[in-house]
Design goal:
alpha+beta; Lambda Exonuclease, Chain A
């Protein structure tokens, strides 16, 4: 049985890949850029250079292997958590080594982060959009320690410092702004639930003034994106 308690009607959006990145088709018929596309296109030169330096240091082929493996683990972990939220059995990890690792990671997130802290789940893999501007998919909407929150699940190769996940916080703020616009909520909390491939878990809670600051930063990135098109 699903543990999702439907509070709002979340409609699915179709998405396509365009010249400028991922696009979502909104109910009004307009196509808008995804949250991740906007963040990627407005990335600072410092971050772009840091990524280029890392690829140069480890080698292009090795870098691609690392990115591909991480993406595979992350996708598999997400799907297992999504299935668990839908009430499906995820007790059998399968024979694939990536799936086995992702299964362990998903269980860490579920039993050490979600179950002790999440009071209600209102939606999983929720499509959200801000009319005419952007859209995206958040992993979870619900109550985190009694307060409505946007929640995202992340895999990582190694534990992260808070200052390294600025874009994750901007994603949370973007989804919250869209949810507020569509459903009349006033979300002021976002949570990143993270597990490393070595099964070290982390939770990062964004709330209060820090949350509002990131909402302002998000709108600055949206403005930059459209001004540079």
């Amino acid at each position: 049985m699903s543990i999702i308690r439907s509070k709002f009607i979340y409609n699915a959006l179709s998405r396509t890949e365009g010249e400028s990145g991922r696009l979502y088709l909104c109910p009004d018929g307009k196509k808008v850029a995804s949250v991740t596309t906007i963040l990627d296109r407005t990335k600072s030169e410092e971050k772009r250079q840091a990524l280029a330096n890392w690829k140069k240091r480890v080698g292009e082929q090795a870098a691609q292997t690392i990115v591909t493996e991480a993406a595979g683990r992350g996708t598999s972990m997400h799907k297992m958590i999504e299935r668990w939220l839908a009430g499906e059995d995820i007790s059998v990890p399968g024979s694939n080594l990536v799936h086995q690792q992702a299964h362990k990671m998903a269980n860490k997130v579920i039993y050490e982060l979600i179950k002790p802290n999440v009071d209600e789940i209102w939606g999983s893999e929720v499509n959200l959009y801000f009319p005419g501007l952007y859209a995206g998919t958040t992993d979870c909407v619900g109550l985190w320690q009694g307060e409505i929150a946007i929640m995202d699940f992340k895999q990582t190769n190694k534990p992260k410092k808070r200052e390294w996940i600025e874009d994750y916080f901007l994603q949370l703020a973007a989804y919250a702004q869209a949810h507020d616009e569509l459903y009349g909520t006033k979300i002021n909390r976002g949570v990143v639930l993270m597990c490393s491939k070595d099964l070290e878990i982390q939770k990062f809670v964004l709330e209060g003034q820090e949350f509002q600051d990131h909402a302002h930063k998000w709108w600055d990135r949206v403005e930059t994106f459209y001004n540079n098109r």
